[in-house]
What we know:
The structure holds two protein chains of two kinds.
Chain A: H1 2-10, H2 20-53, E1 56-57, E2 65-66, H3 70-77, H4 79-112, H5 118-130, H6 133-144, H7 149-156, H8 170-199, H9 202-210, H10 215-226, H11 228-243, H12 247-252, H13 264-274, H14 278-302
Antiparallel strand pairs in A: 1-2
Helix pairs in contact in A: 2-14, 3-4, 3-14, 4-8, 4-11, 5-8, 8-11, 9-10, 11-14, 13-14
Chain B: H1 2-19, E1 45-51, H2 57-67, E2 71-77, H3 80-92, E3 99-101, H4 104-110, H5 120-126, H6 128-131, H7 134-137, E4 141-142, E5 153-154, E6 157-169, H8 170-175, H9 185-197, E7 201-203, H10 211-223, H11 226-234, H12 245-259, H13 272-280, E8 284-290, H14 294-301, E9 305-308, E10 320-330, H15 337-347, H16 353-358, H17 374-388, E11 391-393, H18 403-416, H19 421-435
Parallel strand pairs in B: 1-2, 1-3, 7-8, 10-11
Antiparallel strand pairs in B: 3-10, 4-5, 6-8, 6-9, 6-10
Helix pairs in contact in B: 3-4, 10-12, 12-19, 18-19
Amino acid sequence: MxxxxxxxxxxxxxxxxxxxxxxxxxxGYLYVVPAAAVYLGFSLWPALNTLYYSFLxxxxxxxxxxxxxxxxxxxxxxPLLLGSVLHSLVLVAFFAVLPILIxxxxxxxxxxxxxxxMTTFRVIYFLPQVVPLVAVGVTWRWIYxxxxxxxxxxxxxxxxxxxxxxxxxxxxxxIAIGLIGTWCMTGLCMMLFISGAQKIDSSLDExxxxxxxxxxxxxxxxxxxxxxxxxxxxAVITTIAALASFDLVYVTTGGGPENATTxxxxxxxxxxxxxxDVGSAAALAIILTILILVFVGIIRRFTREPx
Amino acid sequence: xxxxxxxxxxxxxxxxxxxxxxxxGAAPRPSSSSDISTEITDDPVTLTVSYxxxxxxxxxxxxxxxxxxxxxxELVQTPFADYxxxxxxxxxxxxxxxxxQYSPGPMRAIVPAGLVEPLDEYAEAYGWRDRVSPSLLGMxxxxxxxxxxxxxNLYAMPGAIQMIGVFYNADLxxxxxxxxxxxxxxxxxxxxxxxxxxxxTPVAMPALGVGGFQLWSALSNVLADVDVFNAWVYGExxxxxxxxxxxxxxxxxxxxxxxxxxxxxxxxxxADADAISAFTSGENAYFVTGNWNTKVFSDAxxxxxxxxxxxxxxxxxxxxAxxxxxxxxISSASENKDVAAAFLDFMVSEGAAQGVLDSGxxxxxxxAAATASGVSATIQTGYEEVVAGxxxxxxxxxxxxxxxxxxxxxxxxxxxxxxxxxxFVESLQADWDANHx
Lengths: 307, 437
């Protein structure tokens, strides 16, 4: 059957089973092959592998043992693993919600004042994005230390009773790390919002001003709806950064004190590479991936353009 | 319809591939090499050594290649965290290194996979067990499943000694009116209290890093039965810390010192590097840590730096300290095992002593002709007392692959007061039980 098809093709007569439309379709797939191969090989394949590993008890070297859903169930029953997931949800408030709010306020202030000095402000607020997170983490560990800048400053203004070792206490450590995230992410959000706000037709703003709307009203009625797309992107990026955080926690507290700041990324690393428990690490990674997909889905739904 | 068919085909292919994919069936166990030799070839040989810690490897390699000029040794260094993760892959690869620094964590998978050579025949041929303190070899011997240590085959040899003791800044202790080194634990506690009264935070405590639980280990060594501790770290069946009150007592002292303000407050966020810089800049009088810091300390403090072993409750009790050798194993894939074994033999010979001493560590086999000065000499003497006494106790974090994190968060719990000393020891035992079921 295939040989006859080939022969008839050589003869130049299109066979009935391989019409030109279908050939074009096949050629189309051929063009996709290189990109698809890279995606399959380096993205989809490892992801499927991770899913497969999550059903195993495996040390990464010797033969693995099939344990079914045990690893996945452990993510929800082991207080250490579940705790890390809950901590990452707290971080979402600091990495995503706060930066977007502050970013919007900064955008409103900077847009209102026109473009004078805008570049300087942008550079200052965006700078934390350029610094490697490991350097950020080490620096903030010093700032938060018992005799660090923060406590020294508090004592200098007479608030010595507020001074405390921020990262060393279970109650304050996670919030302290979250605020580092806020510091990092605010600049990114602001940059996105300013570039979005500049695209908004200025006649809209002027028309609103003619109708007597004040700056706050104009921001709410004109700028904010125009930033829908940017807010969506900013929320997705920062939420993923919060849920998948690793480096910041690794260098500031290492998950301590007393596992009060563990995050899934940190535990995946520990389980897979220190404890030789690739199965549990893969299960936690799978749950983390699902969590991120759920969050992204919710964000996209809430920020969709009204039909 | 057609698209879904293609997707299905792709998925099926993926699953088929998955089924055949790398859960790495057990590698073949090494064939017992009955034809070992302590004579090495004169032909040019190149050995590759994969390692983390330097020193002591460089002086060892220099000493060996001086004796055997036909041997070239290529050194491949990897940072600690990466080493832990990459060692398994490196040994399983086609061009595995000949010699690797032994690390108890990854070895739990590597030994059962048969990727490192049992050294017992070489040990017999070279007489290693007569020359090296048994307490150093305990953690380097294990059964073939690597579930229990201190028994079974020998998988590595120590190249130099690391040991934990009390470093002190004599400038600060003298200012607090302390005369000489303490002979008992009670005297040491009095000295610490005296330093606190002089207005200096007495003890460096990096509870974010490994420094926190090392103080607990050191206190445990002198307060509890060392044999109980060794059995526990080695993973002997039914080993437990709960029956010996010494471990709880050690945790109670650590907690009490924290409550009395003997540590920097906020110790749970102090990293090892932060504590080292605090100690070298004269902010703390004492630092219970390992001799791997000797060089940094003596460069900064000079003659003010002193060292003593943490004293026991009773004066004159047999000395004990936590420590280990820097161990090296031979890869099963090595084509020059005899040469590699000759290198391991050199490490524990007198010829290696001076080079190791110069690098700030304690040689496994002392050489009368080799000279140490200052704190290095004190540490050397301390080590000899320990070997003559109760011996070297293994690092507590070797008990299980997750014990490091359990110890770290446990000490943080002691410092915050969220854990009682009893609960701390119970948390360690719970980790042990979970890993030895």
